[in-house]
């Protein structure tokens, strides 16, 4: 009885194996599946989908995280490179501008040395007085460098002002636009006209803040001064040496009572964005 039962079980298993094998052989050849096949296929597919989608999401998440990490590192390197490039470009531009200014300054001093026996000490502007009514700047030259009060100060373009106060290593420079901020006699600038030194004379002792122009007074009515003339220091007095360009005449008219004439001078030097200036030292001041 037991042997008969084992035979039946063996036959059932063999039949099931043959059935599965037959299904495997015919499944690829048939376009339509039976409903049990459909049920099993749908059930298995749905079950696989439950595990496949989360697994795909997780795998995609870690893959995206890896890509984000790579992108982050690349962006970090690019930002560092861009920052370095911008810094180097700015430094290069600044050095080129400084080199250009110094070359112009060197050319200026050589031209002046051929005309006058002056010494030009180049100085850097290190501070600007924030008080708009106190028109001074500070330079990095002082007593230790041979700088003294009332020495003329100029830029490549023209006269800037004069040394007002001196410490051991720094000096304060009174700008021309603050020429009427002081009551001492040294504020006045005796000037003449370039090419007409023996024909023209005047005094600059004030600055028109509204027009941002210098005012030249005490001009003789018969003076040859004309619009377009270049005004230079005459060398008269003890402050400003001869031959420093101040500005250009833009207008001339009779002054009060018609005794003398007044001229408006457009200064050559810019007083608002000074970087480097020159302290002019004459042989007398140097001694």
TrEMBL record:
It holds the Pfam family MreC. Keywords: Cell shape, Coiled coil. The keyword Membrane does not apply. Residues 78-112 form a coiled coil. Residues 125-280 form the Rod shape-determining protein MreC beta-barrel core domain. The keyword Transmembrane helix does not apply. One of its GO terms (biological process) is regulation of cell shape. It comes from the Bacteria. InterPro entries: Cell/Rod_1, Cell/Rod_MreC_2, MreC, MreC_beta-barrel_core. GO terms for cellular component: plasma membrane. NCBIfam families: mreC. Involved in formation and maintenance of cell shape. Belongs to the MreC family. This is Cell shape-determining protein MreC. It comes from Paenibacillus rigui. The lineage of its organism: Bacteria, Bacillati, Bacillota, Bacilli, Bacillales. The gene is mreC.
């Amino acid at each position: 009885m037991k042997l008969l039962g084992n035979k039946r079980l063996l036959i059932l298993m063999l039949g099931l194996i043959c059935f599965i094998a037959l299904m495997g052989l015919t499944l690829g050849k048939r376009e339509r599946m039976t409903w049990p096949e459909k049920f099993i296929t749908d059930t298995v597919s749905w079950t696989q989908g439950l595990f496949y989608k989360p697994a795909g999401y997780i795998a995609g998440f870690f893959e995206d995280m890896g890509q984000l990490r790579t992108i982050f590192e690349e962006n970090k390197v690019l930002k560092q490179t861009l920052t370095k490039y911008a810094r180097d470009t700015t430094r290069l531009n600044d050095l080129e501008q400084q080199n250009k200014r110094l070359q112009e300054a060197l050319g200026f001093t050589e031209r002046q040395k051929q005309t006058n026996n002056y010494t030009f000490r180049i100085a850097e502007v290190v501070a600007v007085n924030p008080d708009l009514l106190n028109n001074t700047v500070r330079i990095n030259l002082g007593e230790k460098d041979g700088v003294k009060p009332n020495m003329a100060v100029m830029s490549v373009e023209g006269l800037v002002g004069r040394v007002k106060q001196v410490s051991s290593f720094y000096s304060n420079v009174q700008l021309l636009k603050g020429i009427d901020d002081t009551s001492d006699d040294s504020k006045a600038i005796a000037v003449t006209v370039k090419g007409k030194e023996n024909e023209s004379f005047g005094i600059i002792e004030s600055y028109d803040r509204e027009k941002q122009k210098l005012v030249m007074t005490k001009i003789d009515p018969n003076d040859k001064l004309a619009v377009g003339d270049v005004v230079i220091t005459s060398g008269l007095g003890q402050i400003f040496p001869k031959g420093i360009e101040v500005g250009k005449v833009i207008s001339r008219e009779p002054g009060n009572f018609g005794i003398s004439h007044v001229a408006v001078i457009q200064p050559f030097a810019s007083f608002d964005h000074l970087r480097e200036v020159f302290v002019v030292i004459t042989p007398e001041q140097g001694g």
